[in-house]
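#lab-general

N.A. 3:47 PM
ok so I finally got the sequence cleaned up, no stray characters, all 221 residues accounted for. can someone with queue access submit it? mine expired

B.Y. 3:52 PM
send it over

N.A. 3:53 PM
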Amino acid sequence: MELGEVTRAWRGGFRAARHGAVLAPVIAAAAALVFWGCGSGGSNDQGLSFRVFGIFQEIEEKIPPEADKLPTVDEHPGDTGRVVSFSSAATIPNDVNGDGDLDGGFIGFENFMTTQRLNIVGVNVDIEIPGATIPLPSDFVTLALTLDRKVGEEEEPGLGNVALAQVMFVSRDVMTFLANNRSALPPAPFDMIVVMTAEAVGDTGDRFVSNEFTYRVTFSD
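B.Y. 4:20 PM
back already:
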């Protein structure tokens, strides 16, 4: 792929650009917007093979027709959670400022292996709502994203291939389920904790599961 070249796909796909080129987010049930590069890192519960290193948001929101300044491998402000209402949020991430695209929810992936690439196949999603009186749904958000093998000297720990992908990790179906079962949820305001792991398959066919990572959503009504 040449610098700035864009690949588009719907439903379990992504838009991609190298070195932080700016793109408009894809609004689809399991879509991702992806940036590649090399970055710093560390270990996780699964070892030094594959990790998620955080969830991030746009560098700067713009008013259309000007494009948002999206996070890059080198600059990626943290997305630590959000406050939503059932009437205003159909998915997580959602369109916070009403400009027609999703805001935040960029997951950071990193491959530490020097011998093989990783094909990220998706994100496992569980939700926890303290005080809920019904079983809560789980989900699997399909992705199609390849991380190259680690580059640089092997003795340099923490250098690996990095991608940032905007992922709709709480789907419209899950949000509709929660809204339809509002009486089984605690009184507002209440918190929902989204608990996730990413899954990937290496060139050898081995399967890798990332460290667990979480995201807090507060429902105001």
